[in-house]
Amino acid sequence: MEIEQLEKVASQVRRDIVRMVHGCQSGHPGGSLGCTELLVALYFERMKLKENDGKVVFDMDGKDEDLFFLSNGHISPVWYSVLARRGYFPVSELATFRKLDSRLQGHPTTHEHLEGIRIASGSLGQGLSVALGAATAKKLNNDKGIVYVLMGDGEQQEGQVWEAATFAPHHQVDNLIAFIDLNGQQIDGPTVKVMNNRDLGAKYEAFGWEVISIEEGNDMAAVTKGLYEAKGRLGHGRPIMVLLHTGMGYGVDFMMGSHKWHGVAPNDEQLAAALAQLDETLGDY
Amino acid sequence: MKKYTFTEKKDTRSGFGAGMHVLGQQNPNVVALCADLVGSLKLEPFIKENPERFIQCGISEANMIGVSAGLTIGGKIPFATTFANFATGRVYDQIRQSVAYSNKNVKICASHAGLTLGEDGATHQILEDIGMMKMLPGMTVINPCDYNQTKAATIAIADHDGPVYLRFGRPVIPVFTDADQKFEIGKAWMVNEGTDVSIIATGHMVWEAIQAGEILEAEGINAEIINIHTIKPLDEEAILKSVEKTGCVVTAEEHNRIGGLGDSVAQVLVKNKLVPQEYVAVNDSFGESGTPAQLLQKYGLDAKHIVEAAKRAIARK
């Protein structure tokens, strides 16, 4: 897909995010908006997905296709929107987000059998381990698919992440590409103030990972180029870490660059102000 | 009283290792994981024959649970192994979210459960694991009683689709069940039919219960002994059928009296048929260093204490 088309999808996904969070007056818009380019580029351009007659089909095992895991499950709005827009489930279902009897739970879950979700996430620090298991299963199955996993930068404070970071190079899991959303914010404030992660790139390199950076994580061309580069480094005995520099709340001016919109929903006026900045390209749900 | 004899003593963890050896040959999807305790878990025969299907995780239990959950995506059947304390309490949230809530086909296989790991003391003697695991929706909880039953259970859980907690131990104890038994998850085993009291036991306590039954018989008391190897799902029918006959119950487990087999049985009785129940279990405390026999005696878990509990239960009828 052309960059321009991907950007159009991203604009619609951003509208979905703010409308979903507004609709239930809860959820996490900031990180969702910041990771929009990544998820759109993955699902609409980079990932090999199982399709039948041009339509995506979902099965839990995901053999012979690429897999994506969202470890920082609280940015579920962006994932749900991208999955729906890609065709995994009806776009109209986005209106049920976080409401009673919905398959779109606050944090992603397999419990409600939502197409596209393969593991529950929300309690942080677990997704990298799960992705490593799925990547290992692919190797055991001689399956050439790639496993992608996204984590938050605040999430790097969880100890389990570093257990997984040690495991991956030791077992040469080189069919996996991990991302850290470096937006520099977490609930209690800037990450450097809450708990300074210091140089994450140097840390992962010291652990034996191949580390690359996407400096403009909200520039679609830069993201697709970075994904292409990351893929080119697979298969050489080392896992790949992509440091994705994003802006929390990117695309909605009053939400940008602040931890204040980590987990706050816009009111009616704020919703209108946000939507005025985002083109409706694919039709609202 | 039906006679139970034994020709050898073995540890239940070796039964697990033997079961894994069989699974390695029979089921190509079985993958073993371990957190730096290969010898303790008796995994050497499996690893020798299937090195590509063994994943050493190092001392990183949380990651091991997550990797196991991921391995199921792609059809593998991971057996995640370590000591019971590190397999449950240390990684409860990982099991809760990535395994139980996600309904992943992970087998959590835990050795050195209970007091009878002995000299290592209370840091390793988890007495709360059955409670933690049975509270998780969808989790099957199994605590077999000897080498043969543990081997059979290990083989059986590979064919069960869903998360399982398999609990076994370190000490050598008599091997008294059939070598070629078929293990049926959720089905109680009638060890001895009786009329005066139902002794419902799990794990290492089954052999203690058999010894207690013999002592009681000498005193003219006819004990029914039931082995509940599957604590969840619980064989309620077998329990209720027994108490209809005997009118009182003793539960025996190597676990805290809070949250274990005793409480599961009590819930069945409260709902269906109120009869006196006595607990043989650790009385809401931590353990300590000592030999297995010393610890069972000090913490009130040996045959003698089961006999006393049976008499108390009968007196309350």
From TrEMBL, chain A:
It comes from the Bacteria. Pfam families: Transketolase_N. Residues 8-274 form the Transketolase N-terminal domain. Transmembrane segments: none annotated. This is Transketolase. It is an enzyme of class 2 (transferase). Belongs to the transketolase family. It comes from Dyadobacter fermentans. Keywords: Thiamine pyrophosphate, Transferase. Its cofactor is thiamine diphosphate. Its EC number is 2.2.1.1. InterPro entries: THDP-binding, Transketolase_N. GO terms for molecular function: transketolase activity.
TrEMBL record, chain B:
SMART domains: Transket_pyr. InterPro entries: PDH/Transketolase, THDP-binding, Transketo_C/PFOR_II, Transketolase-like_Pyr-bd, Transketolase_C. It is an enzyme of class 2 (transferase). Residues 10-175 form the Transketolase-like pyrimidine-binding domain. Keywords: Transferase. GO terms for molecular function: transketolase activity. Its EC number is 2.2.1.1. Pfam families: Transket_pyr, Transketolase_C. It comes from the Bacteria. This is Transketolase. It comes from Dyadobacter fermentans.
